[in-house]
Design goal:
The chain is built from nine helices and 13 strands. The two termini are 32 Å apart.
């Protein structure tokens, strides 16, 4: 059965990834073991994850004229790039250190991402389908205005408020249909709302999914609580794991899969992603996820 195109209004960055024995300390000069320049940004990563999960996905965002190769990169992953603008600022980018424990630390520059304006967004959303999903992260400007606009046009709203900061606390979660956060973000959000009980986050919006790394994921859905364990794999780089989870869980929900099955599928995809270096380049295809799940069920 045909379903609606998922629209992702999200960041597009160039990731400069450095493999290091440990994170560089203040005043220290540390030689890196290797270097990669790859497509990144939470928005772009999640669009690639959606596309590799088998979705029709349109990305709305802005890049600079310094890295137009990004368009070809997204197209090669079957992402619709017709609504990506070339702005006047440098493309957003991130300096990423990945240490020997596969942990990462990231320095982020927003750049052209913050050139997206509401006038152009209204035009790009003009053909939105009723009940279709629009996905947001916290690396773009005018979040509440954009969410309100999409909601008024009949869309369902998915939000991954990462990276979590003071702006993320001000999101109008009453307009959100699906909230996906990691455990640290969930704790911060719960504190902001005046309580420490994560289950109370279910009062914010209909479905709240919290990822917990090696502890798996938990979902609060009305009065229900759904938990799925993480798959055990040998981690190489955790950089794109969260974005992979977001793309795959939204894809599954868009296909009306039960929430537990959607979370298991997303957990499998993110487990596969951490076994490879890089963010978007490490996101598995739907066929690879199916094969992995079949292998796990045989054990």
């Amino acid at each position: 059965m045909k379903h609606n195109t998922i629209i992702n209004i999200g960041s597009i960055n160039v990731d400069h990834v450095y493999r290091v024995p440990y994170f560089v300390k203040p005043g220290e000069t540390l030689p890196s073991k290797s270097y990669q320049r790859v497509l990144g940004g939470k928005g772009a990563n999640q669009s690639v994850a959606l596309a590799r999960a088998g979705e029709a996905v349109k990305h709305i965002g802005v890049i600079g004229d310094d890295h137009t190769w990004i368009i070809d990169e997204l197209k090669s992953s079957k992402v619709d790039t017709s609504s990506i603008e070339v702005g006047s600022f440098a493309t957003g980018h991130a300096l990423i250190q990945v240490d020997d424990n596969a942990e990462n630390c990231i320095l982020l520059f927003a750049g052209a991402n913050h050139e997206l304006n509401m006038d152009s967004l209204s035009e790009k959303l003009s053909g939105i389908e009723k009940g279709g999903w629009v996905l947001f992260q916290n690396e773009m400007p005018h979040l509440n205005q954009m969410i309100s606009l999409a909601k008024e046009m009949g869309a369902r709203i998915a939000v991954n408020p990462a990276p979590f900061d003071d702006r993320a606390k001000l999101i109008d979660y009453a307009l959100v249909d699906l909230l996906i956060v990691n455990d640290l973000e969930a704790e911060e959000l719960a504190k902001t709302k005046g309580h420490g009980d994560l289950e109370k986050l279910a009062d914010l919006c209909p479905v709240v999914i919290i990822t917990r790394g090696t502890k798996g994921a938990i979902c609060y859905f009305g009065n229900e609580t759904i938990e799925v364990p993480a798959f055990k794999v040998e981690a190489v780089d955790t950089t794109g794991a969260g974005d992979t989870f977001v793309g795959y869980v939204l894809s599954s929900i868009a296909h009306n899969l039960p929430l537990k099955e959607a979370m298991q599928r997303a957990s499998a995809a993110s487990a596969l992603a951490v076994t490879k270096a890089g963010a978007s380049v490490a996101i598995p295809t739907s066929a690879e996820v199916n094969q992995f799940l079949n292998t796990m069920s045989d054990l």
